[in-house]
Amino acid sequence: MTGNERQIRTLIEKWTAAVHRGDMAGVLAGHAEDIVMFDVPPPYEGVRGIDEYEAVWPPFFTWQAEGAVFEIESLDVTAGEDVAFAHALLRCGTDEELSRTPENRLRLTLGLRKDDGRWTVAHEHHSFPYTGGPAEGAGDGTRDVHRA
User: Where is this region: Disordered (predicted)?
Assistant: First the structure.
């Protein structure tokens, strides 16, 4: 593991611990002022900028205080000298939710850049796998493209 990868891994582990504690200052640390985040809940166009990013966390902290976990299960980091990306799977849910679907994981992807010699998160994307049935007509166009 390179020094950059180690620094990024530490940054992400500290962020995850801060999310779990509901520590807003720790959640914001290491994020760029112009962060772009795409999250599971709306807004559909994502959040842009550190102020919007900060504003989305309080409802999550309230839910998490009811006993939910937020912990890294796996984390992979690829880093160059000034840009990097990371992807992780996290256990995120209440005991009841995790016992109902123990295999469900929050998927996290981060884009990072080095600003003034320190790594910052410039892009963050959270998602859960879609577990519902197929939507009406879903995939019809995709199958047509692959047949051509």
Answer: 125-148
Contact of 46 with 134, CB cutoff 8 Å: no
User: What CATH number is given for 3-131 in this structure?
Assistant: 3.10.450.50
Taking the model in full, what pTM does it have? 0.84
Q: Which residue has the tokens 């123990």?
A: 102
Length of the chain: 148
> Is the distance from CB of 4 to CB of 79 less than 8 angstroms?
yes
| Residue 111 Cα distances to 19, 22, 41, 43, 130, angstroms | 18, 23, 20, 20, 23
Alpha carbon separation from 81 to 4, 34, 70, 87, 144 (Å, rounded): 7, 20, 29, 18, 42
Q: How do the domains of the chain map onto residue ranges?
A: 3-131
- Encoded tokens for 93: 């849910």
